[in-house]
Write a structure and sequence with these properties.
heterodimer, A: alpha+beta, four-stranded antiparallel beta sheet, three-stranded antiparallel beta sheet, 15 helices, 18 strands, B: mainly beta, 7 strands, extended, Chromosome transmission fidelity protein 8-like protein (chain B)
Chain lengths: 397, 138
């Protein structure tokens, strides 16, 4: 056996050890527990993101840390091992100019060996998870933007000073465990808007006031609800006393931008479903209604040219039969937690048994990486089917 | 809080080596408090490809070099000093930096074989660090 070639030490010497040669392995001059060294198992696909500094670790001290790429969130799981994993750094890293304290035969000159800096007790693994967006909703619900804010000119500085539930983008990425991309999607799903640098949810009643004014203006000006010019709408709403930003937001919430090829269009089409759902929620805000009464009022409220058809209320309401009467009340999927365990717990508190067609609108937005829709049902529900051709019924496990 | 994982090495991250064996290596009592630079054993690569032996005292382990399906990154956690004028968002002052990558390990999964005859000349007799018998169970 040949000794290692001079100058070749550390990890390189081990990794490039030639056949018929050997290298002494020693404890490193700085050997120790080195709790500051963490081994993170990373999939090949993720490697470039880490090496090019596109990942961050997010979480509060009381939360389990997650690792975020630009678009995904991964839980960091610690995996232990009972094996002894000897870590040998490359030469040059962890340099010491200290010569061996005792030059007896038990000790080597560190220049001709590979030395072990630490014995690892395990490593971290990454498991893709759904972003933890329930907290985002919680944070933004603390201080929704209300109509008095732009009328009374609430002192922003005062608000900032009291830190009354106002969050900038940078505050959100500090507090919410989600990737940037998922956070943006989450903000859009909550219909949040950035006002004066803060991400806000706008009070639903206030949004309704702006929508009513928009509809009023389109009748007055003979605008088509399927071809609204953004500038006309926003200018008009501004002259009615609404802030530009919110007028703009109203189009984003209740409309869809028309796309004409690659050209960014300034034309919007009001979304029939979103507008009709808004009026249904408005009616049901104060509690349940008899179905017949509700339908009469709803049909009367929706703008002309729009059809209030009951099936668009999927995932927004619950129907109950009490005696001879059918009642309807608001129950919106958008108010339910994204955490599947919490979601199912609330659903089964609401109703002990669900038929598939009723349950589906309230769970179809759940997305748990690595778990299919069937997997979700298996994990969180009990499925019963009295007879082979009967509709399956889902209850709590 | 948010900790950006730093990496100054880009694509050419320096590779670390890993020797993995079952059980634990116990240091003889007289060396317990003088581990630094202490000889553990001799890693040899006989002529056959990717076979390795690791001789620790009078024990010899046989193992193979295996590529990791998923590489391991070596991260170093540092607490930034208080006086750092960096107004970065990491309020807790913790930084994570990639300082190396592990793509292979040399895994010794056999039970150690006792060397009855005279061990390899390179092995220092008195430097033996025998396995604790209890640790050999796995």
């Amino acid at each position: 056996m040949d000794p290692p070639s001079p100058g070749c030490t550390g990890a390189e010497a081990v990794l490039s050890l030639q056949p018929n040669s050997s290298i002494p392995i020693t404890y490193h001059p700085l050997f120790g527990p080195h709790d500051d060294l963490i081994l993170l198992e990373v999939d090949q696909k993720l490697l470039p993101d880490v090496l090019h500094q596109r990942v961050t670790v997010r979480g509060q001290p009381d939360e389990d840390a997650v690792l975020c790429t630009e678009s995904k969130t991964y839980a960091m799981k610690s995996v232990g091992t009972s094996n002894s994993v000897f870590l040998i750094p490359p030469s040059g890293q962890y340099n010491t100019f200290e010569s061996p304290k005792c030059s007896s035969e038990n000790y080597h000159d560190p220049l001709s060996v590979a030395s072990v800096i630490k014995i690892a007790t395990g490593n971290m693994e990454l498991v893709e998870v759904a972003p933890r967006l329930d907290k985002l909703r919680l944070l933004l619900s603390q201080n929704p933007y209300r109509s008095d804010e732009d009328i009374e000119m609430v002192d922003l500085e005062e608000m900032e000073r009291t830190n009354a539930g106002l969050y900038r983008w940078n505050d959100l990425i500090e507090k919410v465990q989600a990737s940037d991309y998922e956070l943006r999607i989450g903000l859009r799903a909550l219909s949040a808007v950035e006002i004066n640098g803060y991400w806000r949810i706008v009070d639903e009643k206030y949004m309704g006031t702006i929508l009513r004014m928009l509809l009023h203006n389109s009748v007055l000006n003979d605008w088509s609800m399927s071809l609204l010019n953004q500038d006309d709408v926003v200018n008009m709403l501004e002259s009615d006393g609404f802030p530009r930003k919110l007028a703009d937001h109203c189009l984003h919430i209740f409309g869809n931008k028309m796309t004409e090829g690659a050209i960014t269009s300034r034309m919007w089409k009001l979304d029939e479903r979103k507008v009709c759902v808004h009026f249904a929620r408005e009616i049901l805000r104060d509690g349940k209604r008899k179905m017949k009464k509700f339908m009469e009022e709803w049909v009367r409220k929706v703008p002309e040219g729009m059809a209030a058809s009951f099936d668009i209320l999927e995932g927004e309401v619950l129907i109950e039969k009490l005696g001879a009467e059918t009642w309807i009340r608001a129950f919106s999927v958008s108010s339910l937690p994204y955490n599947p365990a919490e979601r199912f717990s609330i659903l089964f508190k609401e109703r002990a048994k669900w038929e598939w067609k009723d349950l589906q609108p309230f769970i179809r937005d759940l997305n748990v990486p690595g778990l299919s829709a069937e997997g979700l049902l298996l994990k969180y529900t009990r499925r019963t089917q009295p007879t082979a051709d009967a509709e399956p019924v889902f209850s709590a496990r | 809080m948010q900790i950006r994982v730093k990496c100054s090495c880009g694509e050419d991250c320096r590779e670390w080596a890993v020797l993995e064996l079952q059980g634990v290596v116990e240091v003889q009592p007289q060396f317990q408090d003088r581990l630094h630079n202490l000889h553990i054993g001799l890693l040899c690569r006989p002529s056959s490809p990717e076979t390795y032996t690791f001789t620790i005292g009078y024990h010899e382990l046989t193992g193979t070099k295996l590529p990791l399906k998923k590489p391991l990154l070596v991260l170093k956690k540092t607490k930034r000093s208080e006086d750092g004028s960096d107004d970065d968002a990491c309020a807790a002052g913790v930084e994570l930096e990639v300082i190396g990558i592990i793509r292979h390990r040399i895994l010794f999964k056999t039970r150690p074989m006792a060397l009855i005859s005279k061990p390899q000349p390179a092995v220092k007799k008195s430097a033996q660090a025998p396995f604790a018998p209890a640790a050999l169970e796995n």
